[in-house]
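User: Structure please.
Assistant: Input sequence and predicted structure:
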Amino acid sequence: MTKVTAQLSVSLDGCYAGPRHDGDGDWMRSAESHGFFRVTRWATDAMAWRERQGFSGGNQDVDSEIIAESFGSAGAYVMGRRMADGGEVPWGDEPPFRAPVFVVTHRPRPKLLRRGGTSFTYVTDGVASAVAQARAAAGGKNVAVAGGGSLVRQVLRAGLLDELELHVVPVVLGSGLRLLDGDLGLDDFEAIELTPTRVVPTPHVTHLRYAVHGRAPLVLDDRGSGAGTPTD
């Protein structure tokens, strides 16, 4: 059964990158990139990630196995335009996805075909349409929401996400781009319920997988008294 999944590396204080970089400066020298590479170092050191990028070396360990599992389970991807534009040059003619990628954007662009089975389809009618097109193209495998974080929040807010995996790195960035920011559309008496389904600790990162159950009202319990919901 096809699931819509998302995963991001985050710091202990919930940041997936440093403070947002805007303007014409070099992104690689920005605080955003420094935070991003700090929380993804575990992945770039893994053999499975390096092999997928066409690089040699890397560590063959549990972290690498989790990355290989993620690549193997994805039949299609959804990503934001900022990520797609930023990765176009470094990914080159043979990007690591090896599957159809659906880019959520407001700016039309013709479909891009790349070697290795990767294609980029630019979807201008919203995130739900992009997810639906990715489901149809996934061939029974999962749809992976590749990011960035704002797109993951859009999918979560729309109730389209089935599974969320956080790779929590033991570092505090202090400030930066936060995954679970305040734009999820929840009112003061709502929450999004999740159930942990897997926890894998390693020396550099803790992998936390959750099943996402969607919105639910916040209801007071009986505060341990056994007497029912309090009235005051």
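The first strand starts at residue 4 and ends at 11.
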